[in-house]
Amino acid sequence: MQIDEPDEKALQKRLGRIEGQIRGLQRMLDEDRYCGDILDQIHSVQQALRSVGREIIRNHLETCVTDALRSGDAEAAEETYDEIMGLLKKEL
User: Fold this and answer.
1) Which CATH number covers residue 60?
2) What's the pTM?
3) Looking at the predicted structure, is the pLDDT value of residue 92 above 60?
4) d(CA 47, CA 41)
5) CA 45, CA 74: separation in Å to the nearest integer?
6) Which domain holds residue 63?
7) What letters, b where the CB count within 10 A reaches 16 and e where it falls short, cover 8-19?
8) How far apart are CA 53 and CA 58, in angstroms?
9) How much helix, strand and coil, in percent to the nearest 5, is found in the chain?
10) How many helices (H) and strands (E) are present in the chain, helices listed first?
11) What tens digit of pLDDT does each residue of 18-42 get?
12) Environment class of residue 64 by beta-carbon count within 10 Å: exposed (0-12), middle (13-18) or buried (19+)?
């Protein structure tokens, strides 16, 4: 994966916060917290993960996909389009 160091550090920091949110969810369950509060926290974690995923997709488009398309290899370009469509289907 080709992620610039500052971007990679930012993603690592965000994933660390998400990890903390997951630990918080575990504590909430242990403490028998209100279901609505737990569901709100789950939603927050899901949104945070989606945000990280969008950043990684953007990076993938800017680096790996762009390189494959610029290579002039039609087969590689088609495979890259198929890969991106598959990733976007999962994201949407």
Assistant:
1) 1.20.58.1000
2) 0.82
3) no
4) 10
5) 39
6) 5-91
7) eeebeeeeeebe
8) 9
9) 85, 0, 15
10) 4, 0
11) 999 999 999 999 999 999 999 999 9
12) middle
What pLDDT, on a 0 to 100 scale, did the predictor assign at position 42?
A: 97
Phi, psi of 72 (to 5 degrees): 85, 0
Q: How is residue 74 written in tokens?
A: 């039609």
Instruction: Phi first, then psi: give them for residue 33, nearest 5 degrees.
Output: -70, 165
The letter for the amino acid at 16 is G
pLDDT in tens, 44-78: 999 999 999 999 989 988 988 888 888 888 888 88
Q: Is 39 helix (H, G, I), strand (E, B) or coil?
A: helix
CB atoms inside a 10 Å sphere around CB 42: 14
- In this structure, are residues 89 and 74 in contact, taking their beta carbons and an 8 Å threshold? no
Number of domains in the chain: 1
